[in-house]
């Protein structure tokens, strides 16, 4: 059996520094256990820049070689990966990358190009007699079992039952193997887009609810005055002082 794992470059949620993707690391951990249990070959693939230092962290997570299909950011990555993945029995990937604006469509595009079924949001995976048994993540804590015939592509959920093990010695022993490709451009629409850092959204200040549960239930069925005051007279400074007094009363500001 041949297994492949698609990995991407992640991003630290605070500093924004490039690092391994936690979701793809879970997929790699599951693939390593499957390859060991079934004596299967395992290939770790990435499409992009081979000089990115974040790719070396997948070596520390257990990959002996990370095969990098060198391609610019504007190339058709799905078609490039689909060409390389021809003949594999099982392909694992993360649900989506960690670039904040990633759509998560890459696994679906690759599966469509390979004409193989896809099972998403996998938290557990087992292979038996040419069938992949997948436990899927469902909302509100629910899970369900799905069976799919191989070959198939499995997208791993961030809450998968996998704990990556980082070892610096493996990082020194593994290698990054760049492979030149003839990538074709995806389209020209990217030229009209610009990328910038996300900005924090303003938070709405709301006073804490101090009424009892019984009073809140009554207010849901009756119309009542919630208090407050309307300030019409006075200068702008006096009106601002009224607003500031309200914020201090409800502990919405600390000055």
Question: Can you give a write-up of this model?
Answer:
With 255 residues, the protein is of the alpha/beta class. It has two domains: 2-187, HUPs (Rossmann fold, 3-Layer(aba) Sandwich); 202-255, no CATH class. Helix content is 27%, strand content 26%. It has helices spanning 22-38, 56-60, 77-84, 106-114, 168-173, 213-221, 236-249; strands spanning 2-6, 9-11, 18-20, 41-48, 65-70, 90-94, 118-128, 131-137, 143-149, 152-156, 175-180. Helix 3 (77-84) packs across helix 4 (106-114). The N and C termini lie far apart (65 Å). The relative contact order is 0.16.
The domain count comes to 2
What is the CATH fold-level name of the largest domain?
Answer: Rossmann fold
Q: Please summarize the sheet with the most strands.
A: 9 strands, mixed
Q: Could you give the order of the helices and strands?
A: EEEHEHEHEHEEEEHEHH
Overall CATH class of the largest domain: Alpha Beta
* CATH homologous superfamily classification of the largest domain: HUPs
Low-confidence stretches: none
Which term fits the overall shape?
elongated
Strand content: 25-35%
Number of strands: 11
What CATH architecture of the largest domain do you see? 3-Layer(aba) Sandwich
Average pLDDT confidence is 86
């Amino acid at each position: 059996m041949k297994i492949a794992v698609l990995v991407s470059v992640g991003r630290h949620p605070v500093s924004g520094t490039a690092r391994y993707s936690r979701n793809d690391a879970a997929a790699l951990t599951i693939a390593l256990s499957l390859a060991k249990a079934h004596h299967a070959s395992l290939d770790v693939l990435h499409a992009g820049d081979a000089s990115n230092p974040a790719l070396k962290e997948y070596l520390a997570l257990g990959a002996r070689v990370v095969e990098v299909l060198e391609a610019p950011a504007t190339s058709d990555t799905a078609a490039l990966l689909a060409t390389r993945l021809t003949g594999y029995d099982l392909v694992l990937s993360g649900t989506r990358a960690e670039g904040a604006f990633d759509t998560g469509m890459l696994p679906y595009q690759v599966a469509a190009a390979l004409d193989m079924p896809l099972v998403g949001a996998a938290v557990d995976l087992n292979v038996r007699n040419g069938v992949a048994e997948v436990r899927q993540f469902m909302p509100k804590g629910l899970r369900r079992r799905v069976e799919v015939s191989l070959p198939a592509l499995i997208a791993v959920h961030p809450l998968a039952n996998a704990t990556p093990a980082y070892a610096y010695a493996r990082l020194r022993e593994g290698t990054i193997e760049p492979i030149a490709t003839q990538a074709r451009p995806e389209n020209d629409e990217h030229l009209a887009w610009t990328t910038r850092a996300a900005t924090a959204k303003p938070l709405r200040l709301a006073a804490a609810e101090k009424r009892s549960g019984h009073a809140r239930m009554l207010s849901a069925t009756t119309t009542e005055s919630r208090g407050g005051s309307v300030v019409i007279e006075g200068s702008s400074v006096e009106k601002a002082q009224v607003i500031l007094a309200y914020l201090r009363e409800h502990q919405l500001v600390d000055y």
